Amino acid sequence: MIKVVELFAGVGGFRIALEGIKDVNAEPTSDKFDVVWGNQWEPATKSQPAFDCYAERFKGRGKHLNEDIALSWMEAGPHHLLVGGFPCQDYSVSRSLKNEQGIQGKKGVLFWEIMNIIEQEKPPYVLLENVDRLMKSPAKQRGRDFSVMLRAFADQGYTVEWRVINAADYGFAQRRRRIFIFATRTDLNHSERARQADPEKWLLESGFFAPAFPVHELTSEKHPGSQFELPKDIVEISDMFSATYRNSGIMSGDQVTTIETLPKREVPKTLGDVVQEVYEQFGPAPEQYYLDTDTIKKSGRNEQEELAYLKGPKKIERTSASGHVYVYAEGGMSYPDSLDLPGRTMLTSEGTCNRSSHVIEDPQTKKLRYLRPEECEGLNGFPYGWTATMTDRKRYFTMGNALVVGLIERMSHRIAEVHEQEDDQNILQEAIQMQLLGTYNNFK
User: Fold this and answer.
1) pTM for this model (two decimals)
2) What EC number(s) has UniProt assigned to this enzyme (predicted)?
């Protein structure tokens, strides 16, 4: 059994996939994974609806903490797999005044808390999720943040592979692009196979992601790949280094190979499929989700007209703080959203009167409405009704932050395959020995 620690757990997307949960009240169906420790904490708010949902759905299974990860990560204990969808922040670093070992001035605090656990526990496998702009940030030093992360993993003795995946490309109901990062300790068989393989062939055929998310043999001609050596000094990377990262890549040792892979697209589930499933399970959409055509807003438009304006093309003359006059232009969006396509990327503001919210023509009434919370769950592949423990506003928010469960489910099969080729009896013992060695070296 693969022991799992889940960080930034939200309402449990990683865990649903790893444990094979198909229904709100269903027991786990997977005998491969055991989530022994999970942490979810939303700072600056007394209410913790995401954690409350997580604790209710996984009641009696593993330990759940609603605490600042900086104060609680020491309790995680030995585990095989560390997972989490961590916030995207600024990862710049600086050396201490006396040029001592270690790094100060870290701004991407939560990522460094992940690295604290990795340094302490040395888990064999790490699987992380983030927005794909991580590879391009910051704008003035493209690729710096991702390079800092790779260097941090290398310093802890890990091989790293990544892939940017659009869920709709592989049959799922949402056009949601996210980067997934899979790291393995360098002493493992998987890392050794990666070292010996041709990097490009590994990414296209035999690595971690390719078997679960097939790509074409040819890479993008428009976006050529590259190979380079990552500097050993993480402060140098933070201060000076930049790189162009493509949607697939691997770091083995200090060597980085990155290429733009082309997915072998599968027929996706549509937004209409999700809407129909929710209708069959929950009945007609309540009136509260339909657009208001009576109340006039300050703009002089009702809600339906306001959304038509917000989603339409426009050119607006604006004046900057310095007095510079410029034209702000915005392209049009589908209004209403097509039921014959996968949904667009959901944001945390879903269900409110703004440009990014989905608006559909209800198949039964032919009137315009927002998505129901259950439909948002469906776009992410969650069991319908999973977030019914909280208010609608929080349900929309948590689904805007969530991942597509089916992607992790595919990855879970790959993790199980990788693990089967390792010595499960010794894999955690080796981690403990590595911890002790690190403690001894620090003591010296």
Assistant:
1) 0.92
2) 2.1.1.37
